[in-house]
Amino acid sequence: MIAVALSRGHIEILQFLRDRTAVVFTFFFPALLLLLFGTIFGSESSEAGVAASRIFTASMIAYGVLNTAFVTMGSGLALDREDGTLKRLRGTPMPAWAYLIGKALLVTLLSVAEAAVLIGVGVLVFDMPLPPADHWVTFTWIFLLSVIACSLLGVAVSALVRNARNAGAILNVPVVALQFISGVFIHPMSQLPDWLEKVASLFPVRWMAQGFRYVFLPPEAEAQEINGSWDLGMVAMVLGVWCVIGLVLCLWTFRWSSREK
């Protein structure tokens, strides 16, 4: 069955690459936002003396993962359910987990490529230095937990999408809202009302962005975070909890067709 899952992943990747519009918007929209924010605010520095462009680069990796894993997974499942792809696959020996692993391979590959593009923009355009080797270890586990959590939540939320044509609009509502309250577009988060900080802390995006800032920003930037700490233990705990929540929701909501109950 592992071979079946890998084969499905290969098919998913080929189908995605054939859709040039999806390729362009998936990879270059976050990079375009980074270029705009970095260029407009790049000359400014935080109280810690860190260039705004560098802060945006680190934080935007969280947006790239959320946009790629959550939206791509959710909209892809909604489309497969509506056009009958899932119904046809149900009649084959492919179990649900093999299909989902195939999707997961796609979003993981896309997330890696998205992160590489954003880091490349930061390094080549905004002169952001690459972090030391030990920070890449931290980057790896934060990245993997982020992709897993966002992918599982994308699977769960896809069950709420009744019309695949509206999937992008529906899924992007929480994506855009969370970027503004989670320290991606607005940093430091102390600029937000206290109640918005508390709301953002319930969701994974705030912790994803904070973790990636630890990886790419200098130690003095830690003072700009809530409580003046990178708090990597909390980052790991919250992302791990959301992985479990996402898995439970997937098992509860996954359907082969929109009419299935």
UniProtKB/TrEMBL annotation:
Matching Pfam families: ABC2_membrane
GO cellular component terms, A-Z: ATP-binding cassette (ABC) transporter complex
Keywords attached to this entry: Antibiotic resistance, Cell membrane, Membrane, Transmembrane, Transmembrane helix, Transport
Domain of life: Bacteria
Entry's transmembrane regions: 21-43, 55-79, 100-126, 138-161, 168-186, 232-254
InterPro entries: ABC2_TM, ABC2_TM_bact-type, ABC_2_transport, Nod_factor_ABC_transporter
Keyword Transmembrane helix annotated: yes
GO MF annotations, alphabetized: ABC-type transporter activity
GO biological process: response to antibiotic
Topology of the protein relative to the lipid bilayer: Multi-pass membrane protein
Residue ranges constituting the ABC transmembrane type-2 domain according to the UniProt record: 21-257
Cellular compartments annotated: Cell membrane; Membrane
Family the entry assigns: Belongs to the ABC-2 integral membrane protein family.
Protein name: Transport permease protein
Organism name: Actinoplanes lobatus
